[in-house]
Design brief:
3-stranded antiparallel sheet, rod-shaped, 25% strand, 230 residues, 8 strands, 5-stranded antiparallel sheet, alpha+beta
Length: 230
């Protein structure tokens, strides 16, 4: 039984279409397995009291990619946090950048895989509004005041002996009593004052004056009497 040429041509044509379809499908599958930016993700986390930034690569093809992280300020790079290389897997491979980030800070994460990816993860990474290390709150004041150390009597003050007055403080000076005037001394002073007074002298002068005055009157009367007899 001979094969019709037309039948053979149709068979060849059908095989060609199937091969082309398979090639296109493989091409799409290859592109789907190739590294692309959608396979990368970034996150800001806390490692205890320290902040970190993690980048995860879920590229099943394992194409090496370089990850660079930059701190942003008003849309511009303020500083470069670091740069690492990652090879992804279907389960995902995560790399970590140590960065003590501040709340609500913005970071740009760039991915570069030669021949596949050279762009940033969109949108930019924004850190949480709460810092990893919380500020310690001061202790609440107690309602009941506790006695201070100054309120209690120190042991040193209790055990310190009371100072005894010295000999100069306890004994009065010897010349204190002698300097105070005594009644006897006062009487002697008064007696001496009476003895030293000029009372006798004044009395004598007064008597002499009276005698002189009397004599003058007497002689005056005699002269007057003699004048009258003539």
């Amino acid at each position: 039984m001979s094969i019709n040429r037309r039948t053979v041509a149709r068979s060849v044509r059908a095989l060609g279409v199937a091969s082309a379809s398979a090639a296109i499908a493989l091409g799409f599958a290859g592109n789907a397995l190739a590294c692309n930016i959608s396979e990368f993700s970034a996150e800001a986390k806390c490692d205890g009291d320290k902040g970190v930034i993690t980048v995860t690569d879920v590229d099943p093809s394992g194409i090496p990619a370089t990850i660079s992280v930059y701190l942003q300020n008003n849309g511009a790079d303020l500083k470069k946090v670091g740069e690492q290389e990652v090879k992804g897997s279907r389960e995902g491979v995560t790399i970590t950048f140590a960065e003590d980030w501040k709340p609500n800070a913005e970071y740009r994460v760039h991915v570069k895989a030669a021949g596949y990816v050279d762009e940033d993860i969109k949108p930019n990474l924004t850190t949480p509004s709460t810092a990893c290390k919380k500020d310690e709150e001061p202790p609440a004041p107690s309602d009941t005041p506790t006695p201070s150390d100054s309120a209690s009597t120190p042991a040193e003050e209790t055990d310190t002996p009371t100072p005894t007055p010295s000999e100069s403080e306890s004994t009065a000076p010897a010349d204190t009593a002698s300097s105070a005037p005594s009644p006897a001394a006062g009487d002697s002073n008064l007696a001496e004052t009476g003895a030293n007074s000029n009372t006798g002298l004044i009395a004598g002068i007064a008597v002499a004056l009276v005698a002189i005055g009397g004599g003058a009157v007497f002689f005056g009367l005699r002269r007057r009497g003699a004048s009258s007899d003539r």
